[in-house]
UniProtKB/TrEMBL annotation:
Organism from which the protein derives: Phytophthora nicotianae (strain INRA-310) (Phytophthora parasitica)
Disordered as annotated region, ranges: 1-71, 395-453
InterPro entries on file: DUF7869
Ranges of compositional bias, category Basic and acidic residues: 33-49, 57-71, 430-453
Source organism phylogeny: Eukaryota, Sar, Stramenopiles, Oomycota, Peronosporomycetes
Top-level taxonomic group: Eukaryota
Name the UniProt record assigns to this protein: DUF7869 domain-containing protein
Amino acid sequence: MDMSPATSSTPAPPTSSHTSPSVSSEQGVALSGERRLLGLLRPDPEGHNDIGFPALDIKHDRPGEEAERSDFVGDANEAVRGTGKRHVLENDLDVREHRPSTFRKVLQQYCPTIRIRSPRSNVCGLCAILHTRMRSCITAELTEELGVHTEAAKKMRLEYKKDLASVSEDHAVSVMDFSQNLTLPSVASTPSQWYFLSLVNVHVFGIYYANKGQQYNYVYEESVAGKGTDEVNSMLYHFIQRIVLTNGHRKLAIYADNCGGQNKNNFVVKMLLALAQTGELDVVELKFFVKGHTKNAVDRGFGLMRKKIAKEDVWTADQLLEVINDSSSSSALVHIPKENTMMKLFRTPVKEAYKNLGVQRYQIFTMSEKKPGVVSCRTNAAKVRSLLAAYLEPLQPPPPNFEKKQQMYNKGRPYAPSEIASDPLYAAPTDKEERHAKEAKQARHSASAKEKK
């Protein structure tokens, strides 16, 4: 079907059995603009080679446009499937096909109401649950819960950015996290039988050193150690001794996720408290991201590492170490062999030195040399205000003591002056109150007799 802009009064004959309405010059220019919007840059059949963008009127409701749209969409798919230097085949000019970023810029300029959502990973579970519930029924409770959760995540993110901007010769900032387990061997063409095998796991613990923008990847096999709190303390202690103290830092801020078995527990807090109390560091801050909102610099380094591994055939541990080391220019490899002096059992000494505290209730912990043995737990002021407003209930009085009331009437009232004998303090108990007093006295005597036996 010839859908080129009409340049004469005589309409072009249709090329199929269906009658096609004529297309005006303005419509042809708009369609030519749509072709350029898709990056085809194909010369117009009638010689309209203007490169400028006329007033785009992309409504897709003009008569006969559906066939034309399918025509240039098919051409676009053909251009996308091109290989080599990805030149546009239909274009006589040797112009390279536009990148996706160019499409996004043009679409944002001429079609601002269209939104293309980016791929999501590591989505917060609580946010997903609340959004799913709110699709069917929006309530004040769900809205408030989502608002409190997202507000806490935003505040912790601002705290993280503030610390990253405050790095100095005296202040060091680091982020630590475990990567997903790597396996050996790891090849691009994975044999089908390997899916039913338990391959050798390789653990990677990353510590991002924000002062120099470098990430230290501690790599060890599953036969060396696990992924518990003692392993975290050992590698973190090694990093502090070799990097933080060596560079002369006296204040350290550490960020981590909320994994209780690895990072957020009493043993990690106590180890850092010991470093502050012994004077190796003046101030140590341990801060935890809000659960579900833990994206950080270490994850970026892990992403580059996994992309590099996906392109390589890795059969041995030495090959894996080489790939991890070459995954990024800012990556520093720390290999932990089976025979090493790094892994230590920290829980025994710190458990004897300090008592436990409610770690899971707080997000920020501060240990200072000026306050030896003291851990300051910071909480959100807005959270405190909401708790005070929502949970301040009247204090209920203790239950009445009928036995004492009977004693005051029988043994205290005879000694009181006559003018105060009618005071409620010396009032006579009712029959029901006397019965309760007798039962309480018998129960007390029975309990005392059982204790003597």
